[in-house]
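Could you help me review a protein record that somebody else here produced? What it holds is a sequence and that sequence's fold in token form. I have pasted the whole thing underneath without changing anything:
=====
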Amino acid sequence: MHNACDAADVAHDTFVRILGGRHAAQIIEPRDYLATIARGLVIDRYRRHAIEQAYKQTLAERPEANAISEEDKAIIIETLVAVDKALATLGERARRIFMLSQLEGLTYQQIADQLQVSLTTVKKHMIRALTECSLIVASL
């Protein structure tokens, strides 16, 4: 953690998550469970920080005429973090297919050739990924 405030936030969030859980009283190894929850929250914080930094770097490279308001920046960062979480739940192959399509600009056929999978597999994973992203964006 970068500072004591971040560590305190993670500790607070860890206990909130544990106490809000349905089976908090049934935890057999509380110390291990606590460490696992805290580790996941720290990873989430680092992932969010990396996304924010990448976005801010992209904004810094834009001309001033295209400046974005602070409110819009916050909304965009929240959306990016939510999409990142959704992609993390998809599985490695689906995430890779989505990234090749959306970030690399490859066609479905090019993705199928590169990953040595069928075109139907690529389409299936893209439908799943796009559905997840649509649900996330709709909920914001």
